[in-house]
Amino acid sequence: MKVGILALQGAFREHAEAFDALGADVALVKRPEHLAGLDAIAIPGGESTTIDKLLDSSELREPLHARLQDGLPAFLTCAGVILCAREIVDGRPDQQTLGVLDVSVRRNGYGRQRESFEAPLTVRDLPGAPFEGVFIRAPVIERVGKNVDVLAEYDGHAVFGRAGACWFATFHPELAGDLRLHQCFLTEVD
Length: 190
Ligand code: GLN
Prior knowledge:
alpha/beta; Rossmann fold; 5 helices; binds glutamine
C-alpha cells in the first residue's frame, strides 16, 4: 500500500515515520507527479495558511483536489482538517479550502499557542486505553454534515471521525507515540 504524505510544511515527517513503522510504502508529496500511484494520502498539521499558499506554488491544488474528489482515502490532521473543510470560520480572509470534508471548523478555536493541551480521548471501537490527544493550536469543529461519522469528541465537539474515505483528527495522532489511529486508517483502506 502506497501512502503519500503532503510534505509542503508541517508535521509530515512524523506521519511518514508512523506509516513507515506500520509497513506502508511511504512517498512524500511535494509536486503533482508525486500523486501518481498513491492508494491513500495524509495531510498533516502545520500552518494551514502557509500550506494553502504552497498548494498554489507547488501546483498541487487542482490535482490533489481531483484525487480527493475521486475518493482517494485521506487522513487529515489538524491544519489538514482546515485545508479540507467545507467551511472555515475565522480563517485568513483570502484562505481557500479544498472543501471535500463536510464540516465547519473554527481556526484556532481553543485559543492561542499557549492554550495547547493534551487530553485522553475515548475513541469508539478502539480497543485498549484512551488515546492521548495532542491538541496544538487546534481547530474546533462546529458543525458536521450528516454523512460524518464522529468517533471521538472532546468538550462536546467532534475531534476524530470519518466521512467516507476521508478520516480526520483535529489533534496530532502522529505525536502521541501511539500508532493505533494510523493503523485503523490503513486497515480500512487496505
Ligand atoms: N492553527 C493552525 C492553523 O490554523 C493549525 C495547527 C496545527 O496544525 N497544529 O493552521
